[in-house]
């Protein structure tokens, strides 16, 4: 599955969340619509559903890789670049996948897919997208908080995800959510990734109470 994630432009309407109507707040304390509901979705209902992922970026992070060190330098494009691709949800190879949707006024505003990686006890966010018309409304923050809570429930030592060096807005968002760059792959998508300014970046955040070098499962 192509994991170049985190933005989209398709909206499914007519679905409603369960539970009481409550007023939510985003990370900055801004009040959100009382009809915003985040709920777990049925895996089989959404398996194989295809979405178009779209984002616009003003620049990219250029990698300067040397024998014993590397550095990142932000560079602007001459004009904002719009990128898009399609991808489907819930690949068969995922281990114990979960799927959450954010619904505003009955419309699917965002979706997040995750799964455990038991071999190293990490929780991976495989897909994370907020549809274009619902961005910058605090919905992504709430959806990410739910995914991080799921990782804690799974007793994962870390939560990790993949993004690209050209997805500047996504990188900034993940950093605000507590993620940091933990690795990269210069040639994940093609042999020209560095020249294209689209290098795979791994980001991660350690569960509270654990250092980044810990390997033991959480006790609580």
Automatic annotation (TrEMBL):
Keywords: Acyltransferase, Transferase
Region of interest (Disordered), ranges: 1-26
GO molecular-function terms, A-Z: acyltransferase activity, transferring groups other than amino-acyl groups
CDD domains in the record: NAT_SF
InterPro entries (alphabetical): Acyl_CoA_acyltransferase (IPR016181), GNAT_dom (IPR000182)
Domain N-acetyltransferase: residue ranges: 61-202
Keyword hit for Transferase: yes
Gene3D superfamilies the UniProt entry points to: 3.40.630.30
Record PANTHER family: PEPTIDYL-LYSINE N-ACETYLTRANSFERASE YJAB
Protein name per UniProt: GNAT family N-acetyltransferase
Organism whose genome encodes this protein: Candidatus Fusicatenibacter intestinigallinarum
């Amino acid at each position: 599955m192509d994991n170049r994630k985190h933005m989209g432009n398709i909206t499914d309407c007519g679905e409603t969340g369960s539970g009481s109507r409550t007023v939510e707040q985003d990370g900055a304390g801004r009040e959100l619509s009382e009809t915003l509901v985040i709920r777990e979705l049925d895996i089989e209902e959404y398996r194989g559903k295809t979405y178009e992922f779209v984002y616009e970026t003003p620049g990219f992070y250029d990698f300067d890789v040397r024998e014993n060190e590397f550095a990142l330098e932000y560079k602007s494009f001459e004009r904002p670049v719009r990128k898009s691709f399609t991808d489907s949800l819930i690949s068969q190879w995922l281990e114990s996948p979960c799927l959450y949707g954010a619904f505003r006024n009955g419309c699917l505003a965002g979706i997040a897919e995750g799964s455990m990686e038991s071999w190293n006890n990490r929780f991976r966010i495989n897909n994370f997208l907020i549809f274009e018309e619902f961005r910058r409304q605090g919905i992504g923050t709430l959806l990410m908080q739910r995914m991080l809570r799921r990782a804690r429930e799974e007793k994962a030592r870390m939560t990790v995800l993949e993004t690209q060096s050209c997805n500047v807005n996504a990188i900034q968002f993940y950093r605000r959510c507590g993620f940091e760059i933990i690795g990269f792959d210069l040639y994940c998508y093609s042999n020209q990734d560095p020249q294209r300014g689209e290098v795979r970046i791994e980001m991660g955040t350690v569960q509270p109470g654990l250092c980044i070098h810990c390997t033991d499962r959480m006790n609580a």
